[in-house]
Design goal:
- This protein is mostly helical.
- Helix content is 62%, strand content 0%.
- The chain has 31 helices and no strands.
- It has helices at 19-34, 46-51, 86-99, 104-131, 146-157, 163-167, 172-190, 203-219, 225-238, 243-251, 256-259, 262-265, 267-289, 309-328, 353-372, 376-390, 416-433, 437-461, 465-473, 480-492, 496-509, 514-526, 530-543, 548-560, 564-577, 582-594, 598-611, 616-628, 632-645, 650-662, 666-670.
- Helix 21 (496-509) packs antiparallel against helix 22.
- GO terms for molecular function: dolichyl-phosphate-mannose-protein mannosyltransferase activity.
- InterPro entries: O-mannosyl-transferase_TMTC, TMTC_DUF1736, TPR-like_helical_dom_sf, TPR_rpt.
- Its main location: endoplasmic reticulum.
- Its EC number is 2.4.1.109.
- Keywords: Endoplasmic reticulum, Membrane, Repeat, TPR repeat, Transferase, Transmembrane, Transmembrane helix.
């Protein structure tokens, strides 16, 4: 392989370290950035993707992972988001099995290790992207840009926008995708190591890179883009193609392709392999997922639901500018950017148009330099930088399909590679012009230190939901979901008065936010403010008629208002929209018991226990009702059946003991494993269960 012209390191005023020490430094600093997240809780999406995901449990067959989405739902379901990441879910399952339960430390440690590993690999990747690909006589790849590659790897390792991927456990999808993404690239580079037979490239390593790209995609969708980037790298670095000249020759139907020897060098053959591999991967995924698009709502991505093509286009471009700004200045970070956080641009008079103009001014300038510069070295680096910046971002761009977010920091993990390339190249140009290069180096070192501190601060905010949600209030004060999550966190801690304030604000910001209405209605019901609770829940089911939880909670309120027929109708509507709803059957049983419809009550509670065998409240109410109606033998049988399923439930023991006492079975009574303290137990039916 011919050496790339001229050496970028010549103009870079930075530390020169042996490869081994450079990687050690990068690993250590990347570890320090995120080490304080190791003992954080499960936060935000972790609950749905991990705690509530049945695919992590041993009783779920491993084969089901290949037919379920990231959240454990069937891909064929209309409610599935079609996020197909079975290998990521498999690592969660391994974490769960080794830890013996849902202990977040092991999950967090793996994420930190993955980011450190990726950052170390970036040293090799950047040495190729910035310095070119060349092998020694002994077949070892040479690092032609050791200082530049170290700087770029450090920029990547300490970028604060990566915090969501590292400190948030569900970010493992991005980390695993990036790992195999880089391995695919390095494998493709290995294909050009000359072998003993003198062949110029290895088909085996090209195929290996395709397989690794497929594995990356099975971790997260962006992984497939590495195949396109491998083709770009092949054209620019291996074949040194001038894109502008190529376009001109093709337009004039010149025989340049033959004269340039592209067929002889195998470029077209390798690109054909990459294209066939990518097409095959996408076809298999399409067959598994089905043809139905993912189901998203307007609040997830309002621009994609705009009727006007102009409004959609202008807002998509504004989102791109925000992503670019997060790479340049990652200070305002938020766990969620939806629900009014970024109001739609509906007119060219909106001042935010300036951001679009600035973005495209910079992009067009870089593209012109990448295509038209007479310096081949400059063309190559700028084109690779733009390629790694733009191509991995395409799946999140809304250009090919609607995505379920406005801005997501996690999707910038891979595009930040391109940013680091462009930053490092810009630093080299400034160093070349600067008279006092040490001052410039100190400034860059200061940026790195600030980023390290920002990473540590942001990681601490991701340690708990309370800190995470409250940190977003100053960044996205118009985001209804932020206020909702703060309110929910306060409600879970028993601070209902403060929770009401945030739920009301969430509803004010988004008058169609049915989940906020549902939770606010629940709190008002518990505070005996039944009429306002009924108004909120009625409005929620009017806005979203298939909202089963709101129908059930409305039934509970109507039951409390002694409007029993309406309550029964609400319960059955909830069950209609959610067939397997044990809590609703339990509440329906309570309604029937209040109406002295004992058979119906027992049937409803039995349905609850069939759907959820560990439903202690339903079991207990069956025992108490049978006891109160004099069916002691049946009550004893139900009690024993319940204790076989839930052997350590104290309320069931107490209820069964009452039955045995009334039956004068005192010897059997002594065999009941009494709890340490049963003073709080009551022989009465349990309260209703609500759903949030």
């Amino acid at each position: 392989m011919a050496q790339m012209e001229p050496n970028l390191d010549h103009d870079v005023s930075w530390f020169l370290l042996p490869s081994y020490w450079a990687k050690m430094v990068v690993a250590l600093i990347s570890f320090l950035c995120f080490a304080n997240s190791y003992d954080g809780d499960f936060v935000f999406d972790d609950s749905e993707a991990i705690i509530n995901n049945k695919d992590l449990r041993a009783e779920t067959p491993l084969g089901d992972l290949w037919y379920h989405d990231f959240w454990g739902s069937k891909l064929s379901s209309n409610t599935s988001h079609k996020s197909y990441r079975p290998l990521t879910v498999l690592t969660f399952r391994i974490n769960y099995l080794f830890a013996g339960g849902f202990y977040p430390v092991g999950f967090h440690v793996i994420n930190i290790i993955l980011h450190c590993t990726i950052s170390v690999l970036m040293v090799d990747v950047f040495s190729i992207l910035l310095g070119g690909l060349q092998f020694s006589n002994k077949g070892r790849r040479l690092n032609l840009a050791p200082k530049s590659s170290l700087l770029a790897a450090l920029l990547f390792a300490v970028h604060p926008v990566h915090t969501e991927c590292v400190a948030g456990i569900v970010g493992r999808a991005d980390l695993l995708c990036a790992l195999f993404f880089l391995l695919s690239f390095l494998g493709y580079c290995k294909a050009f190591k000359e072998n003993k037979e003198g062949r110029t490239f290895s088909v085996f390593w090209v195929l290996v890179s395709v397989v690794l790209g497929a594995i990356a995609m099975l971790c997260k969708e962006q992984g497939i883009t590495i195949l396109g980037l491998n083709a770009v790298f092949d054209a620019l670095v291996i074949n040194k193609i001038n894109l502008l000249e190529l376009i001109r020759k093709l337009l004039y139907k010149d025989k340049w392709l033959e004269n340039a020897g592209l067929l002889r060098k195998g470029l077209l053959f390798r690109i054909a392999l990459l294209m066939c591999g990518g097409a095959g991967i996408l076809y298999i995924r399409w067959r598994i997922m089905g043809t139905g698009p993912p189901a998203f709502t307007e609040v997830d991505n309002p621009a994609s639901f705009a009727d006007s093509l102009f409004v959609r286009a202008i807002n998509y471009n504004y989102y791109y500018s925000l992503n670019a700004w997060l790479l340049l200045c990652p200070w305002w970070l938020c766990f969620d950017w939806s629900m009014g956080c970024i109001p739609l641009i509906k007119s060219v008079s909106d001042w935010r148009i300036i951001a679009l103009a600035a973005l495209w001014f910079c992009l067009i300038g870089l593209i012109c330099q990448a295509l038209c510069s007479e310096d081949s070295h400059k063309r190559r680096i700028l084109t690779l930088g733009l390629g790694f910046l733009i191509i991995p971002f395409l799946p999140a761009s809304n250009l090919f399909f609607r995505v379920g977010f406005v801005v997501a920091e996690r999707v910038i993990y891979l595009p930040s590679i391109g940013y680091c390339i462009l930053f490092t190249y810009g630093f080299s140009l400034l160093s070349k012009q600067a008279k006092k290069k040490k001052i410039l180096a100190v400034a860059v070192l200061g940026i790195l230190l600030i980023n390290v501190m920002r990473c540590a601060l942001r990681s601490s905010q991701w340690r708990s939901e309370e800190q995470l949600f409250r940190s977003a209030l100053s960044v996205c004060p118009l985001n209804a979901k932020v206020h909702y999550n703060v309110g929910k966190n306060l409600a879970d801690k028993g601070n209902q008065s403060a929770a009401i304030k945030y739920y009301r604000e969430a509803v004010r910001l988004n008058p169609k936010y049915v989940h906020a209405m549902n939770n606010l209605g629940n709190i008002l019901k518990e505070r005996n403010e039944l009429h306002e609770a009924e108004e909120l829940l009625s409005l929620a089911v009017q806005i979203q008629p298939d909202f089963a939880a709101a129908w059930m909670n409305l039934g509970i309120v109507q039951n409390s208002l002694r409007r029993f027929e309406e309550a029964e109708q609400s319960y059955w509507t909830a069950i209609k929209h959610r067939k397997k709803y044990p809590d609703c059957y339990y509440n329906l049983g309570r309604l029937y018991a209040d109406l002295n419809r004992h058979i119906d009550a027992l049937n409803a509670w039995r349905n609850a226990t069939v759907l959820k065998p560990e439903h202690s409240l339903a079991w207990n109410n069956m025992i108490i009702l049978l006891d109160n109606t004099g069916n002691l033998a049946q009550a004893e049988a139900v009690g024993r059946e319940a204790l076989e399923l839930i052997p350590n439930d104290h309320s069931l023991m107490f209820s069964l003991a009452n039955v045995l006492g009334k039956s004068q079975k005192y010897k059997l009574l002594l065999q009941v494993p009494w709890p340490v303290s049963s003073s709080t137990a009551r022989s009465r039916r349990a309260s209703p269960t609500t759903s949030t």
